[in-house]
Amino acid sequence: MDKAQLRKEYKARREQLSSETIEELSLQIANQALKLSIWEETYYHIFLPIESHKEVNTEYIMHILQGKDKSIVVSKSEFETGELKHYLLQENTVIKRSKYDIPEPVDGIEVSAEKLDVVFVPLLAYDEKGNRIGYGKGFYDRFLANCKPETIFVGLSFFSPEKEIPFEKTDIPLHYCITPTKVFSF
User: Fold this and answer.
1) Where along the chain do its domains lie?
2) Binding site feature residues for ATP
3) CA distance 119 to 2
4) How far apart are alpha carbons 175 and 18 in whole angstroms?
5) At the fourth CATH level, which superfamily is domain 3-185?
6) DSSP state, residue 162
7) What sign for the dihedral angle of Cα 13, 18, 23, 27?
8) InterPro entries attached here (predicted)?
9) Residues at the annotated binding site?
10) What residue numbers does the annotated binding site for substrate cover?
Protein backbone atom coordinates (compact mmCIF):
# COMPACT_ATOMS: atom_id res chain seq x y z
CA MET A 1 0.00 0.00 0.00
CA ASP A 2 1.25 3.51 -0.75
CA LYS A 3 1.11 6.41 1.72
CA ALA A 4 -2.14 7.83 0.32
CA GLN A 5 -3.90 4.46 0.68
CA LEU A 6 -2.58 4.03 4.22
CA ARG A 7 -3.74 7.53 5.19
CA LYS A 8 -7.20 6.78 3.83
CA GLU A 9 -7.38 3.40 5.60
CA TYR A 10 -6.26 4.71 8.99
CA LYS A 11 -8.54 7.75 8.82
CA ALA A 12 -11.41 5.32 8.15
CA ARG A 13 -10.33 3.08 11.05
CA ARG A 14 -10.27 6.07 13.40
CA GLU A 15 -13.65 7.21 12.14
CA GLN A 16 -15.12 3.93 13.47
CA LEU A 17 -14.06 4.80 17.04
CA SER A 18 -16.63 6.33 19.38
CA SER A 19 -15.72 9.22 21.69
CA GLU A 20 -15.95 6.86 24.67
CA THR A 21 -13.60 4.37 23.01
CA ILE A 22 -11.09 7.13 22.19
CA GLU A 23 -11.08 8.25 25.83
CA GLU A 24 -10.65 4.70 27.11
CA LEU A 25 -7.85 3.88 24.64
CA SER A 26 -6.12 7.22 25.30
CA LEU A 27 -6.07 6.49 29.04
CA GLN A 28 -4.62 3.03 28.33
CA ILE A 29 -1.92 4.65 26.15
CA ALA A 30 -1.02 7.03 29.01
CA ASN A 31 -0.75 4.06 31.40
CA GLN A 32 1.49 2.22 28.91
CA ALA A 33 3.65 5.37 28.62
CA LEU A 34 4.59 5.00 32.28
CA LYS A 35 6.53 1.83 31.34
CA LEU A 36 9.06 3.87 29.36
CA SER A 37 12.18 5.20 31.04
CA ILE A 38 11.71 8.74 29.69
CA TRP A 39 10.45 10.47 32.82
CA GLU A 40 13.74 11.92 34.10
CA GLU A 41 13.99 14.50 31.31
CA THR A 42 12.98 18.19 31.49
CA TYR A 43 11.34 19.39 28.24
CA TYR A 44 8.48 17.34 26.78
CA HIS A 45 6.77 18.32 23.55
CA ILE A 46 3.22 17.07 23.19
CA PHE A 47 0.62 17.55 20.48
CA LEU A 48 -2.85 18.83 21.29
CA PRO A 49 -5.30 16.45 19.58
CA ILE A 50 -7.50 17.45 16.68
CA GLU A 51 -10.79 16.04 17.97
CA SER A 52 -12.43 16.04 14.53
CA HIS A 53 -9.61 13.73 13.35
CA LYS A 54 -10.14 11.44 16.35
CA GLU A 55 -6.52 11.68 17.48
CA VAL A 56 -5.22 10.22 20.74
CA ASN A 57 -6.31 12.43 23.65
CA THR A 58 -2.98 13.56 25.12
CA GLU A 59 -4.59 15.13 28.19
CA TYR A 60 -3.80 12.01 30.24
CA ILE A 61 -0.10 12.18 29.37
CA MET A 62 -0.14 15.91 30.16
CA HIS A 63 -1.49 15.08 33.65
CA ILE A 64 1.44 12.69 34.15
CA LEU A 65 3.89 15.40 33.05
CA GLN A 66 2.27 18.03 35.28
CA GLY A 67 2.35 15.60 38.21
CA LYS A 68 6.08 15.12 37.64
CA ASP A 69 6.55 18.90 37.36
CA LYS A 70 7.94 18.75 33.81
CA SER A 71 8.11 21.56 31.26
CA ILE A 72 5.44 20.94 28.62
CA VAL A 73 5.84 22.41 25.15
CA VAL A 74 3.11 22.67 22.47
CA SER A 75 3.22 23.85 18.86
CA LYS A 76 1.62 26.28 16.52
CA SER A 77 1.56 25.45 12.79
CA GLU A 78 2.90 28.09 10.43
CA PHE A 79 1.29 26.99 7.16
CA GLU A 80 3.01 29.77 5.18
CA THR A 81 6.44 28.31 6.00
CA GLY A 82 5.56 24.68 6.75
CA GLU A 83 7.23 25.02 10.16
CA LEU A 84 6.09 24.52 13.74
CA LYS A 85 6.76 27.13 16.44
CA HIS A 86 6.99 25.74 19.96
CA TYR A 87 5.71 27.38 23.13
CA LEU A 88 5.96 26.55 26.80
CA LEU A 89 2.52 25.52 28.07
CA GLN A 90 1.70 27.55 31.17
CA GLU A 91 -1.44 28.10 33.24
CA ASN A 92 -2.13 31.36 31.40
CA THR A 93 -1.47 29.98 27.89
CA VAL A 94 -4.45 30.73 25.66
CA ILE A 95 -5.31 27.84 23.31
CA LYS A 96 -7.43 28.51 20.21
CA ARG A 97 -8.44 26.30 17.31
CA SER A 98 -6.85 27.29 13.99
CA LYS A 99 -8.81 27.37 10.75
CA TYR A 100 -7.65 23.73 10.33
CA ASP A 101 -9.24 22.82 13.71
CA ILE A 102 -5.82 22.42 15.37
CA PRO A 103 -5.74 23.52 19.03
CA GLU A 104 -2.75 25.86 19.29
CA PRO A 105 -1.24 28.40 21.67
CA VAL A 106 -1.94 32.00 20.67
CA ASP A 107 1.54 33.03 21.84
CA GLY A 108 3.87 32.61 24.80
CA ILE A 109 7.45 31.77 25.67
CA GLU A 110 9.07 30.27 22.59
CA VAL A 111 11.19 27.12 23.05
CA SER A 112 13.65 25.94 20.40
CA ALA A 113 13.47 22.37 19.04
CA GLU A 114 17.06 21.82 20.24
CA LYS A 115 15.90 22.16 23.87
CA LEU A 116 13.39 19.29 23.69
CA ASP A 117 14.20 15.99 25.39
CA VAL A 118 11.10 13.95 24.46
CA VAL A 119 8.60 14.51 21.64
CA PHE A 120 5.22 12.76 21.58
CA VAL A 121 4.43 12.45 17.89
CA PRO A 122 1.00 12.24 16.23
CA LEU A 123 0.61 9.77 13.39
CA LEU A 124 -1.86 7.92 11.22
CA ALA A 125 0.16 4.73 10.69
CA TYR A 126 3.60 3.34 11.50
CA ASP A 127 5.59 0.19 10.85
CA GLU A 128 7.71 -2.33 12.76
CA LYS A 129 10.86 -0.25 12.07
CA GLY A 130 9.45 2.98 13.51
CA ASN A 131 8.66 4.70 10.21
CA ARG A 132 5.51 6.80 10.48
CA ILE A 133 2.93 8.38 8.24
CA GLY A 134 1.27 11.64 9.25
CA TYR A 135 -1.11 13.84 7.30
CA GLY A 136 1.44 14.44 4.54
CA LYS A 137 2.45 18.07 5.04
CA GLY A 138 5.87 17.24 6.54
CA PHE A 139 5.52 19.51 9.59
CA TYR A 140 6.74 16.87 12.03
CA ASP A 141 9.56 15.52 9.84
CA ARG A 142 10.96 19.06 9.49
CA PHE A 143 10.49 19.64 13.23
CA LEU A 144 12.08 16.35 14.34
CA ALA A 145 15.05 16.95 12.02
CA ASN A 146 15.81 20.11 14.05
CA CYS A 147 15.85 18.34 17.42
CA LYS A 148 19.12 17.36 19.11
CA PRO A 149 20.37 13.83 18.25
CA GLU A 150 19.49 12.42 21.68
CA THR A 151 15.86 13.61 21.63
CA ILE A 152 13.47 10.68 22.06
CA PHE A 153 10.56 10.45 19.59
CA VAL A 154 7.47 8.63 20.89
CA GLY A 155 4.52 7.92 18.59
CA LEU A 156 1.01 7.44 19.97
CA SER A 157 -1.40 5.12 18.15
CA PHE A 158 -4.63 3.25 18.75
CA PHE A 159 -3.42 0.53 16.36
CA SER A 160 -0.66 -2.05 15.91
CA PRO A 161 2.14 -1.42 13.39
CA GLU A 162 2.10 -2.32 9.73
CA LYS A 163 4.79 -4.76 8.61
CA GLU A 164 6.39 -2.09 6.43
CA ILE A 165 5.34 1.29 5.08
CA PRO A 166 6.91 3.39 2.33
CA PHE A 167 9.38 6.00 3.57
CA GLU A 168 11.58 8.68 2.10
CA LYS A 169 14.98 9.96 3.21
CA THR A 170 13.33 13.04 4.77
CA ASP A 171 11.13 10.86 7.02
CA ILE A 172 12.32 10.75 10.62
CA PRO A 173 11.69 7.41 12.40
CA LEU A 174 10.33 6.99 15.93
CA HIS A 175 12.19 5.46 18.87
CA TYR A 176 8.97 4.12 20.41
CA CYS A 177 5.29 3.88 19.66
CA ILE A 178 2.76 3.45 22.45
CA THR A 179 -0.54 1.64 21.84
CA PRO A 180 -3.26 0.81 24.38
CA THR A 181 -1.80 -2.67 24.94
CA LYS A 182 1.92 -2.45 24.17
CA VAL A 183 4.98 -0.22 23.82
CA PHE A 184 6.88 -0.86 20.58
CA SER A 185 10.60 -0.11 20.63
CA PHE A 186 12.58 0.55 17.45
Assistant:
1) 3-185
2) 3-7, 132-140
3) 26
4) 29
5) NagB/RpiA/CoA transferase-like (3.40.50.10420)
6) B
7) negative
8) FTHF_cligase, FTHF_cligase-like_sf, NagB/RpiA_transferase-like
9) 3-7, 50, 55, 132-140
10) 50, 55
